[in-house]
Structure formats: C-alpha cells, structure tokens
Amino acid sequence: xxxxxxxxxxxxxxxxxxxxxxxxxxxxxxxxxxxxxxxxxxxxxxxxxxxxxxxxxxxxxxxxxxxxxxxxxxxxxxxxxxxxxxxxxxxxxxxxxxxxxxxxxxxxxxxxxxxxxxxxxxxxxxxxxxxxxxxxxxxxxxxxxxxxxxxxxxxxxxxxxxxxxxxxxxxxxxxxxxxxxxxxxxxxxxxxxxxxxxxxxxxxxxxxxxxxxxxxxxxxxx
Length: 222
What we know:
The protein has 6 helices and 7 strands. The chain is an alpha/beta fold. The termini are far apart.
C-alpha cells in the first residue's frame, strides 16, 4: 500500500480468514514485518493540518502512521487498535519520530469497548473489515466522543482500488450520506463541512498508480 490507506487492502476480502477479529488482525499483521507505508493517510493530512491541535482519537490506528503525524502536529493522541502486533510497530514508529510521550495506546475491540472521554478530533480512516465490525455502533460512539467545537472525520472506500483483486462487498460500500446517517448525530448539533466522494491519485510501493475514490464525511460539533 502507498501513502497509506490503513485498511485499504481489505476491501471486499474473501472470508476464508479467521472469524475472530483478534485472531484475524494478529494473523494479518504477522504476514510481514510492515503492512502499511508508515505515512499518514493523505485524506487526513489534507483536512486536519489547518486545525488547531488538541486531543485526538485515532480509531483503528494500525501501525501508527496517522497517530504519529498527529502527534508531530501538536495533538495529544489516543490511538486505538485490536492488534498488539500493530501497537508494537506503532510504538516503534512513535519512538523513532520522538513523539511517543504524545500518544496513548489503548487496545479495544471496537463495538465491545471504547475509549473514555471526549476529543477535539475523532478520526476513522478506512476502518472497514472483512471480519465482524459493528460499523453503526462504532460510528455512534465516535460521534458521541466529539467534544463541542470538535470534528469527526470518517474516510472510507468509495470503490475498490484499481489494483485490488478483491471483490466489492455485497451491497457495495456505504455512501457518505449513509455513513453520516449511521452516526445518529442530531443535525441541529452539527455542521457538515464535507460529505461526498473524492478522487485522488495514489502510487503503490511497486510503482503502480491509479485513481482512488474516497467516501468522506467531515463534521464539526457546534
């Protein structure tokens, strides 16, 4: 994967893998010494770099690319994932970047447990999963965790990456409008800053390029 979609390679993955989420992700990260590029997701960078830093919640932090970038911008980050292997790599990345003290790592099986408190930024980047992931529950909890004047940023796949050999999930990917509706957020309490499908060019480590389609929701709590 390139610049970085944390979970981009799982879109439409066949379910011949372990059904238990912990087993699945540990097996997934055990395939190679490094799965992701180590860079922050481009969509996150483009939308967050102008924000005043505060407390950030990175849901599904993977190997830490987003969390480390946020910490480098001055955010205090709570980074959440289910995989201890991913945490180990994320901590190493944070140590190399000199920002380990700005990141708190919490292991959660999202949908079953969730970090306490509220945050100035709650980020979900490509959190789709081939194994059980109660998306609506997680989206509702994510929206509820946004502090007043804080932002919720959700970026998912809008289409299968052009280089992927995976099939589109049954029923297709959720639209940005469906994602926003799933948060259960009361319209009077929020300002929707961006909601739609966005194209961007990306290059894989092997040099193959293509246009990716992201489904983006960015909203600010009033």
